[in-house]
Please model this.
Amino acid sequence: MKRACILFTITTVCILAGVVCHAQNANDTTGRKWWKEAVVYQIYPRSFKDNNGDGIGDLKGIISKLDYIKSLGIDVVWLNPIYSSPNDDNGYDVSDYRNIMKDFGTMDDFDALLKGMHARGIKLVMDLVVNHSSDEHEWFKQSRSSRNNPYREYYHWWNAEQGTPPYRYSLFDVNHDAWRYDSLTNAYYLHYFSRKQPDLNWENPRVRNEVHGIMKFWADKGIDGFRLDAFQFAAKDTTFPAFPRGFEKNFTQYYAMQGNLHGYLQEMNREVLSKYNVMSVAEGAGNTFEDAHNLVDANRNELNMAYAFEGADIAKPEGYSLLHLKQVFTKWDSAFASKGWLSVFLANHDQARLVSRYGNDKPEFRAVSSKMLTTFLMTMRGTPYYYNGDELGMTNAGFTTIDDYRDVQTLNEYQRQKNIGGDLPKYLQRIAFESRDNGRTPFQWNGDKNAGFTTGTPWIKVNSNYKTINAAQQEKDRNSTLNYFRRVVKLRKDNLALVYGKYTLLDAQNPDAYIYTRELDGKKLLIMLNFRDKPVDTQTGIDVSKANVLIGNYEHPSKDGKLLPYEAVVYELK
Ligand code: GLC
Ligand code: CA
Model:
């Protein structure tokens, strides 16, 4: 009798477990994973903290700030490239994938950094830049040296006897021509980015094998993940068909997800990713939801997540429509509601500053709008990627002359405008709003010289507002954007509903406020965000007068559905 009972119990548990397992498979979005529950903090090493006074941030500088990083409550650091590089594109042109850029330090520094992070329970994700290498990489030196060199097929060459190659658009080149003629072998090589960033030939199994070796090298050191830079462009149709005139206006349609890209990722997963406890994220998610799903659906064994640009490309100098932003984020959420996983972000090292683009950087609204945007990023489904300095509400650089800029893309486009007789003052205005350098000015640690970033001359100017916007001052202020960031990160960590919960848009047609609920296992949170510099009314049909306020960016959060300028509130509904 007793036995039968035990048997019965076991069977029941198994059946129940089966149901649970089945339920998880049916919705793989809500299947728990550490990388879904993580908050990722992105560090741009060149601008974070300089330790030796040469004006360039370095690994020892990051090590000296590990306690600060830990204090944010984040789980994962994504570090922009730190490999050897001639720095044509600030490290996105790698000349040796197994070494550290001299400006940044040594491999011993790297080992110490990784150890220091792990000791604090922080994981490290590294950039993997393998759509292209530097032209100073040994592979390319060999490849260009002769047509018969064993490394020739590591890159894409077009022999001049065949005539001029079919036009390809380069994102960074001063002429936007992605083929560069090399007289040494009378041939052209392909570079989607700058001429110092030749594209690798992924059709060559030796190239893929090299990349797997590089990934294993870093994974064996114990890193926790890879961010695949520009990888959606890696595979090409190497017959190089002619593209229609004007294709460059929509070049991702022709560049992204071509050829055997998915095959290469499945092979990478088999050979490397599946063998380590690492996360993987692709920059770019193709052109359609189908592309994006094909990258990240768990049963395909490619990558864990991807970040799509649509949401982060909405802000324009003339402003943007909140209805559009809501529509884009809602659409992406619903496409991934039961399968796959995405990242959530509005800023990174390729964008101008979060508060200057999506919020309001005027002194009276800067802090409050920056907190509102942080609340948004931390309450959406998907893994949030948060860019260093945004927790202080750092703003655009305020550069007025081209001499202040350092970015290859910004500078080459300026040169191009000059060459074609373009409107230079207008261009300067545009880059003041959108140049990548806006997000790359030194981190503002304190009110001392150079914002405490360096004792030397910084490689790029410090924002002149560092005396009012800096970490030291914000540490002292309970209500600073920095301390708000810590609280809202903690809120996300304490509420699985914010990670996995169902997202429902409310008051959808409200042009000024973004309102949604997140629901999981009977817990329901309501998030209300005012994107305007004036009070706005909302219509949710929910009485919040008795709801529990979990966080808000005003001392007395709204209890009647009216939101103050840039107000953000998260309620728990009964
Ligand atoms: C990615 C990087 C960007 C870089 C480009 C070329 O878009 O995020 O910073 O310039 O790839 O590597
Ligand atoms: Ca330095």
Remarks:
- The mean pLDDT is 95.
- Residues 89, 92, 129, 193, 229-230, 283, 349-350 surround alpha-D-glucopyranose (ligand 1) (CB under 6 Å).
- The radius of gyration is 25 Å.
- Residues 2-26 form the longest helix (25 residues).
